[in-house]
Amino acid sequence: MSPASLERPLTLALSKGRIFDETMPLLAAAGIQVPENPETSRKLILPTSSPNLQLIIVRATDVPTYVQYGAADFGIAGKDVLVEHAAEHPGGLYQPIDLNIARCRLCVAVPVGFDYEAAVRQGSRLRIATKYVRAAREHFARKGVYVDIIKLYGSMELAPLVGLADAIVDLVSTGSTLKANKLVAVEDIAEISSRLIVNQASLKTRASALQPLIDAFARASSQDE
Q1: What is the pTM of this model?
Q2: Full DSSP string of 149-173
Q3: I need a labelling partner for 104 at 20 to 30 A (CA). Which of 37, 169, 173, 176 fits?
Q4: Dihedral, CA of residue 19, residue 91, residue 135 and residue 196, to nearest 10
């Protein structure tokens, strides 16, 4: 790592929405404020009240990539994203803290009236729509159920309604979206929360700058348990 890179601010990768919103109190606990809101700002690099820290706003699924390859020193990503990332990029990310934010469940959901238990018990081959391919495949493999995985990136609830899939594997928070589309969660796969992830090279070369922030995140997240 060059001397110039050691002088630049630390870079924290975040995605818009719930993770960004729930990260702000953690930064505030470390004495850091973010004056701009990514929902209203067009900037993708946001300064903070600390000259030693800047944020980059990227797609949730891209956060681990930016961190693993050193474009960001650290980031915050959901466990669901990290599981899928690890399938294609094993190793390379240090995950020191479960921040206990953006909590939800990864679930199997089916249309109301669909006899999921019978379908699973009879060994039927199910079509599953999801963007969480690895998690879904491993879940059904453990159950000994044959599945065809159909990868989608959004509007997952639509797939069973139009006959594309028998069931979906998706994140569920309140369940209101499922209910609105006449779907019901029938099985939990995993509890999901967001983790702090750190670039391993940055942890070695910029420890004096990074470690205080890691410690502050740890303290703030433990107070929320």
Answers
A1: 0.86
A2: EEE-SS-TTHHHHTTS-SEEEEEES
A3: 37
A4: -20
Q: Other CB atoms closer than 10 Å to residue 142's CB: what's the count?
A: 9
67 and 133 housed in the same domain? no
Q: Who's near 20: CB < 8 A, 6+ residues apart?
A: 14, 38, 57
Q: Would you say how long the chain is, in residues?
A: 225
pLDDT tens digits for 31-81?
Answer: 999 998 888 888 999 999 999 999 999 999 999 999 999 999 999 999 999
Contact (Cβ atoms closer than 8 angstroms) between residue 128 and residue 167: yes
Which amino acid is residue 178, in one-letter code? L
Instruction: Note whether 154 and 60 are within 8 A (CB).
Output: no
Please name the residue ranges forming H helices in the chain. Answer: 3-7, 18-29, 63-68, 79-88, 116-121, 133-143, 158-161, 176-180, 200-205, 207-223
90 with 179: CB under 8 angstroms? no
Please state, in angstroms and rounded to a whole number, the distance separating the CA atoms of residues 204 and 98.
Answer: 21
In CATH, what number is assigned to the domain containing residue 162? 3.40.190.10
Q: Cα–Cα–Cα angle for 58, 128, 117, nearest 5°?
A: 130
DSSP string, 138-153: HHHHHHT--EEEEE-S
Range of the domain at 7: 3-102+193-223
